[in-house]
Amino acid sequence: MALLNKPWLKAQLDAIEATGLSVDRVVPAWTPEGPPAAHVWRRGAEAGQAGQAWLAWRDDDGALHLPLASEAVRLLLARQPADQNVAWTASPDGAEEAARWAGDALATQSADQQLLAAARSDWNLRQFDLTARHRGSRMATESWRLFWHGENWRWVRWGLIALVAVQLVGGRLWAWQQEKALAQKSAARTQIVQKTFPQIRAVREPWRKCSVRWSKCAARPAGRVTPTWSRCCKPLTRHGRPHAVRRTT
Question: N or C: which terminal CB in the chain sees fewer CB atoms within 10 Å?
Fold first, then answer.
């Protein structure tokens, strides 16, 4: 469950979408999930003046936003166990005050860095009457974003990439083997024709050339059969000629 200023948020969304832009998600800058953490930043800072320091707190009880100088912050930090590890961060202009409460040096985090970290979460406060139009296409876009950038889908992405690569390499290898086999068959046919009919130099269609020569051999008179007839028959029979020509006398 999340509490927010819905009229203000809806007005902001309407103003953004009026410019032609679309808002896929609305994420909280500080979520209640994760280990105990604290972040200090200044709100309402103006040129030449420092704004009020605020504390964003997170533990097992949820998330809080409190003025850093309030009594509620003192009570909150006083009741924390001494052995509890709290990850302290602060904006550059709030690091000095945050170090007083943390008791040690802490990491600085700009507003842009904090918002980018919030955008990586799975939260989406744009629900119910705040849902954007064309929800189906937006859901597809969101699902694609989670699949392509989500850490949980990393190994699936690598597996799909490897599968596509194997398919491409395997298909190219299979095509190369088929081309090689066809070239070997064509060379064998050409060799048969050239051995059978030495007078044929260039052979483009081996079986048609051989069939023509074979027909000429069969058409000769019975008394004028030359050794060429035997040379026609033996190689073709040995290599499995699909059809035979019957010699008539």
Answer: N
Q: Taking the alpha carbons of 206, 209, 215, 216 in that order, is the dihedral positive or negative?
A: negative
Q: What is the pLDDT of residue 247?
A: 44
Given a contact cutoff of 8 angstroms between Cβ atoms, the answer to whether 106 and 95 are in contact is yes
Q: Does pLDDT of 227 surpass 70?
A: no
**Token pair listed for 13:** 């969304």
Whether the pTM exceeds 0.85: the reply is no
State the amino acid at position 116 in one-letter form: L
Q: Could you tell me the two tokens for 49?
A: 């003046």
Q: How far apart are CA 188 and CA 172, in angstroms?
A: 24
H or E element in which residue 128 lies? none
Which amino acid, 188? A
- A 10 A CB-CB count for 166 gives 10
87-90 and 107-108 beta bridge pairing: parallel
